[in-house]
Amino acid sequence: MEKVVVLGSGMVGRAIARDMMKRCHVTVADINQNNLDRLGNDARIKKFCRDVSELSVIDTMVADADLVISAVPGALGFQTLKRVIENGKNVVDIAFFPEDAFELDALAKAQKVTAIVDCGVAPGMSNLLLGYHSRRMTVERFVCLVGGLPVERRWPFEYKAPFSPADVIEEYLRPARFVENGKLITKEALSDPELIHFEEIGTLEAFDTDGLRSLIKTIDVPNMIEKTLRYPGYVEKIKILKECGFFKSEPIEIGGQKVIPLEMSSKLLFDQWNLDDGEPEFTIMRITIRGAENGKPKTIVYDLLDRYDPQTKTSSMARTTGYTCTAAANLFLDGAFQRKGICPPEFIGENPEHVEYILNYLRARNVIYHKKEY
Fold first, then answer.
1. CATH number of the structural domain spanning residue 70
2. Which residues 6+ apart lie within 8 Å of 248 measured at CB?
3. Per the domain annotation, does 243 fall within a domain?
4. What is d(CA 246, CA 334) in angstroms, rounded to the nearest whole number?
5. Domain match, 146 and 252 both
6. Using CB atoms within 10 A of its CB, is residue 105 exposed (0-12), middle (13-18) or buried (19+)?
7. Which residues are 296's β-sheet partners?
8. Domain membership of residue 50 as a residue range
9. Who is most buried in 39, 253, 272, 363, counting CB within 10 A?
10. CATH code of residue 187
11. In a domain? residue 374
């Protein structure tokens, strides 16, 4: 059996470890013993309480790995990926760090490493599907709407996160990039809010975020945008916090003590945004691809609505993100995808057999993308 090392045992990391243990010997490392304890006592998973922000720890953990999966917080993502590549280990990454992964492309190729990055739901499946269709039609417009939300709308934020609050806040601080009429446009995150109705959920609020990531470099489509979905009214509340300085990273002095507002806000918001074990939530995504095929107009729409699984006690965001990651991991372990260097999911999407593999893998776990063409 192959040996897989999972760095990070948060909500998504645990789902990844449990799925990979079906075919592999799995080792998991996390600084938080409580996160590791939530994996249970299955003998197929070895658990180590380690601080992977210490690069020497990464060296030790990945030494015997056939594949590494990085599910660390975004702040650690780039340095973790770099160290894994320096160790000559193939890797699938869902850290969604703000840095440009292609800065490590030359290193990965020199080390003959396959590094599949941004391999979640969005970025992730959104990239893969655009990568597939852009090879088969002339795409004029790509729109991705995506969000993870609790079923219970609890005041004031009506939001819960499977990730750390710091990673969520970072999404609201990083400028949003999109492509309009062939030109790269940059706006403040949370811009251009609009209300969009979804039949099974109701009306949600969509706003600009920097979710296109590698697509801006790798695929030539004249109009591309990604928007995050929340319950209506969310944007205004976050903008108030942002405008009042709660997300600033420069320290301020309070009562003779230096305090970083962003760290304080992350701490305070943890209780507000922490997704409780067993709490019902859902992931919703709509991908719209418009263009022409064989000279005729064509529109393709993918809809995903996935919910918390009470049988496996796995959150929807962990399922939709984690199982996309494990699908790519298994595709690599099967020897089907061996491209070297930094590989965002759109590179996987170039091959129709790879796309079908991943869609079938997800379907077997009841993560189903419904496709319409017209």
1. 3.40.50.720
2. 260, 261, 262
3. yes
4. 47
5. yes
6. middle
7. 293
8. 2-120+317-368
9. 39
10. 3.30.360.10
11. no
What pTM did the predictor assign?
A: 0.95
Taking the C-alpha atoms of residue 67 and residue 6, their distance in angstroms, rounded to an integer, is 9
Report the distance separating Cα 116 and Cα 283, nearest Å. 23
**C-alpha torsion sign, points 40, 319, 6, 98:** negative
Distance CA 126, CA 146 (A): 9
User: What three-state secondary structure class fits 250?
Assistant: coil
Q: Are residues 87 and 186 in the same domain?
A: no
pLDDT per residue rounded down to tens, the chain (374 residues)? 899 999 999 999 999 999 999 999 999 999 999 999 999 998 899 999 999 999 999 999 999 999 999 999 999 999 999 999 999 999 999 999 999 999 999 999 999 999 999 999 999 999 999 999 999 999 999 999 999 999 999 999 999 987 778 888 999 999 999 999 999 999 999 999 999 999 999 999 999 999 999 999 999 999 999 999 999 999 999 999 999 999 999 999 999 999 999 999 999 998 889 888 889 999 999 999 999 999 999 999 999 999 999 999 999 999 999 999 999 999 999 999 999 999 999 999 999 999 999 999 999 999 999 999 99
Question: How many other β-carbons are positioned within 10 Å of the β-carbon of residue 235?
Answer: 21
Six token digits for residue 272: 């507000």
Task: Specify the number of domains making up the chain.
Answer: 2
Beta strands 257-259 and 281-293, pairing class: unpaired
Contact between 229 and 202 under an 8 Å Cβ cutoff? The reply is no
Mark whether 228 and 272 lie in a shared domain.
yes
Query: Which of 307, 334, 351 is the C-terminal boundary of a domain?
Result: 307
Distance CA 278, CA 285 (A): 22
- Confirm whether 196 is domain-assigned: yes
Same domain, 263 and 355: no
